[in-house]
Amino acid sequence: MSRALVEQAQRGDRDAYERLARAAAPRLSLVARRLLHDRDAADDAVQQTLVTMWRDLPSLRDPERFDAWTYRILVRACGAESRRERRRGIAMVDLTETMATLNDGSSTISLRDELDRAFERLNRDQRNVIVLHHLVGLPLGEIADVLGIPYGTVGSRLHHAMQALRAAIDAGERTAAARRQLA
Amino acid sequence: MSQAMDLDRLVSEWLGDSSGGYASVAVVDAALERARRTTQRRGFAAAILGPGSWPAERGRFGLSALAPVARLGILAALLVGLVGGMLLVGGSRRPSPPPTHPQRLAFVRGTELFVAGLDGSDPRLVADTRLLYPTLSPGGDPAACDTCGVHAFTTILWSPAGDRIAAGVLQSSVGIDRIVVVPTDGGQVQHINWQARFAWGHDDVLVSAMWHHPIPEGVELDGIGRLFYARLPIDRPEYLDAAGPAQDGGTVVVLQDAFHANGSWGIDPSLTIRILHVDAAGTTVQELAVVHGMAAGAAISGDGTAVALSINQGEQPSSAVCDGAASCVTLITLRGTPATCSIPLASLAPSAPLGDASQAFISWSPAGDRIALLDAGNANAGYSVVSDACSIIGTTVELPGGNTWGPVRWTADATRILFLWDRAVVEVAIGTARPVVELVADVDTFDLSAP
Fold it and tell me: Hey, are the CB atoms on A153 and B403 less than 8 Å from each other?
């Protein structure tokens, strides 16, 4: 992301902002869909993020960290969407990815299935850390800044989340092994 | 390649699968249209209503750390105070209370481990992971491994004698894989290898276990890891929530179902918490008690005779646990026939009920007669002190927003506790809270007056 472009947008240049927004939308969308697992809610969160991005750009102290800053806004927007969905009592399941996974014909179907289910069971804080670390590739210190939490907290959440994922995979493998033995 | 690395890669690949597609052009266009009708926040409006500059220049105790509503409230209070101050003349100043016990504080700041006075004074660097592991780049990142994560201290614990600090070193995303023992007098640092793939337990439990089960120097910690992983009768995904010494030299272990039966992040009262006793040889395992609910936190008393559980049962609580309340602190006595008593957490902080979080940190007082509970997920962090007779003897402190995560440490005289709030160590006396050290990641105390 061009520093000059960010600085122009910070000064109120709407053309610069729109270029930034269009460039950022795909990566924000990917993260939002992982965090929320519901297309409509994810799109709403991305939309809100892009608007907030424009409104609060002057508060970004270091233009070099524009990307991390947008993830910070996105995580908050996803949290708001999640709370809104919970209040509505809506539990929507996006079947697109599930069907794509089922149709890929690979031997990793059950593993991905386990990961899908395990990821769904993680709480929002843990999902945030996993996605920012393993999808976006942010180091732990950067995640701490993005989420506004201590470094150790990031480590703890990542640790527990990975433990949960591993426990799910191990349990699946144990079940499969037991079935093989019975057969 | 290790199992941990495989899982890291597997998760990254799975998350990166974009088969779900991206936001449509229409979504982006709609956002841009909304932005065109929005003006940027600048100046006074940004200071009062905005999110605060980012990245922040200092810790989260400034005005920008507060919610806009709180900032407006403070502004109004300042105006009222200004007027009131003009009407009042003079005043009195209370002298600062004298220091109580000669305790020391160990805390982590990034990759550095410090020792300081209990009030954060006279900090002294005792170890730095960048110096311990010279293969790291100056920035602290591994030189040739982009998926290994960052080396940093996590979870620190004073040795019983106060002459050493055990510190877990976080290398990969799966948790501690190395423990260093740092002498506080500047002596040689001891490195102990830890196989992360066996680390089922909470980081703090692992390090605590090391001190509870002293091992000959030079022996790797693999034994402790295998003890909890291989010898416990784990037949489904379970966490190791807590572990501590039993009276007979064995270990008391608290295990928790890893997932909820209903497949969502609602708390399910059918979840099982198992309290086990493992004998000193690690060969015999006995189930002491089974409790239902989600253990948001667990702690075993120093003498191994009681377990404190922070239990959350969600919106449909079972009447058998917490007396029908959604969340409670349950104290389970392990002497003879297990007995329990419960304290509904909602009664502690009516404005922001504790216990709704996924994680709570519990710590027994030095005398083992009280516990401190830190609720780690609420917007308002708080603590409560309760007696083992299940009556509340303290009050709840609600901090103005922010995040809290990590262990609670008692001062030796049991009048105050220390915990992390955002990036500060916060000292709490009954009803008050103040930052002691800012920008830290973990904290532990040691009482110089202890025998």
Answer: yes
